[in-house]
Write a structure and sequence with these properties.
Mean pLDDT: 74
Number of domains: 2
Structural class: mainly beta
Strand content: 35-45%
Number of helices: 0
Radius of gyration: 31 Å
Length: 424
């Protein structure tokens, strides 16, 4: 919706500490624009290479509001005439969420804007054509695609100016980049406790109900008086010591006990190989009585089909489908869209997907976190385009008592007791 100037965020921390170049080299500024929420990644990584020579490498924490654009690198005194710029978003475990290489002409001082798309997550390039190694809007393109060569950015352009892009969501930044519309979330356009998503401003799940009142400054409870009784001052015990004869019975010479060692309440044998039942609607756990499989209502059970609607687990453990997402128009399964729209009202309603399995950092904890997908649609030409993203929400389980666990400090296998991992 509203369009503003690119915001500068000088967050990049050089890893090499020194740049290769000379005093009369050129300067390069790198800005990043994306429709991927900052909650989906933990780090931005940038590298610049001239063939085998590394000119620059650095990382940064996720800059805010990538829909507006964020400065992620300022590189000075580069001596190369051209270079390959690689920009990556990385998860907490260091794995790459999405990555893009861009060929950059360094004949003069300049700035470059790199665009990373949510539609390119999990897309592998090249596919049919070996030279199309990079991903733009879910399509494999030439690495020279960019501001210098928009003609290499895939099929015919769907837009030429920002005014042609409007998803109807006030908190997104609507821009025409590389011939296509990009709708970037801007959290600052939402009220406190909310985040911008493909469905608009949504409350960050897990925050509701949190006690944010003032600290308790009341008078301490002093109802229970301290023990002020008289101390025991009686005489010491001066009775005669026990001088009975020692035990001279025959020692036990029986065979030693060679049975299995007592390992307490550790993991039962049937859980040693895990409890995964391959059912997307259950949360599996190993307990002292064996495997348990708790049905999680609302968890995703995606069947990879678009035309039967959103797939969510029901209370009976079955996978339910919301139905045809294209009422009044034709559903195209091959392209995951609706055909024949004349206005956005002819496109599907906003879709909220089921949650991914809950992740618990503490093996005996009750609270965790989960992600879910958001998707909105708009009419573009003869078909419905879409914008997608994800958000995080809190999740929980009713108990972990008797769950098998691994102590994070000792590595021993034990059982959850009172919220902690108790080893035998």
């Amino acid at each position: 919706m509203p369009r503003t100037h690119v915001r500068a965020w000088l967050l990049l921390l050089p890893l090499l500490g020194a740049l290769v170049g000379c005093a009369d080299g050129v300067d390069l500024r790198v800005d990043l624009v994306s429709n991927i929420p900052t909650t989906d990644f933990a780090e931005v990584s940038v590298s610049l290479r001239d063939g085998d020579r590394e000119l620059f490498r650095g990382t940064a924490s996720p800059p805010g509001d990538l829909g507006l654009g964020a400065r992620i690198a300022d590189v000075s005194k580069l001596s190369a005439q051209s270079a390959t710029l690689t920009t990556s978003l990385r998860r907490l475990d260091g794995s790459v969420l999405v990555e893009r290489r861009t060929f950059v002409d360094l004949g003069t001082d300049r700035g470059v804007t790199v665009t990373l798309y949510a539609e390119c997550v999990d897309v592998m390039c090249p596919q049919e054509t070996p030279s199309l190694t990079e991903c733009v809007r879910g399509e494999c393109v030439d690495p020279a695609c960019g501001e210098d060569h928009p003609e290499l950015c895939g099929d015919a352009a769907e837009c030429t100016t920002d005014d042609e892009c409007d998803d109807g969501i006030p908190c997104t930044e609507d821009r025409c980049l590389e011939g296509g519309c990009l709708f970037g979330p801007v959290d600052d356009r939402c009220s406190g406790g909310s985040a911008c998503s493909a469905l608009g401003c949504v409350t960050i799940a897990g925050d509701a109900g949190m006690d944010t009142g003032p600290d308790d400054t009341g008078t301490p409870d002093t109802d229970a008086p301290a023990d002020t009784g008289v101390p025991d001052t009686g005489p010491a015990d001066t009775g005669a010591p026990d001088t009975g004869a020692p035990d001279t019975g025959t020692p036990d010479t029986g065979a030693p006990d060679t049975g299995p060692a007592d390992t307490g309440s550790g993991s039962p044998p049937e859980c040693l190989d895990g409890c995964d039942d391959d059912d997307p609607c259950t949360e599996d756990a190993c307990t002292t009585t064996g495997c348990t499989h708790r049905i999680v209502v609302g968890q995703t059970c995606n069947d990879d089909l678009f035309c039967n609607g959103v797939d969510i687990c029901a209370a009976d453990g079955s996978c339910q489908h919301s139905g045809d997402p294209c009422p009044g128009t034709e559903c195209d399964e091959t392209r995951d869209t609706c055909l024949g729209c004349t206005a956005t009202t002819g496109c599907p309603d906003n879709l909220i997907g089921g949650t991914e399995p809950c992740v618990y950092d503490d093996p005996c904890g009750l609270s965790g976190r989960s992600s879910y997908r958001l998707q909105s649609f708009y009419c573009s030409g003869a078909g419905c385009g879409s914008a997608s993203g994800s958000a995080m929400r809190g999740c929980s389980r009713p108990t972990t008592e008797t769950f098998a666990c691994e102590d994070p400090d000792t590595g021993c296998l034990g059982v959850c007791e009172g919220g902690s991992c108790a080893c035998p």
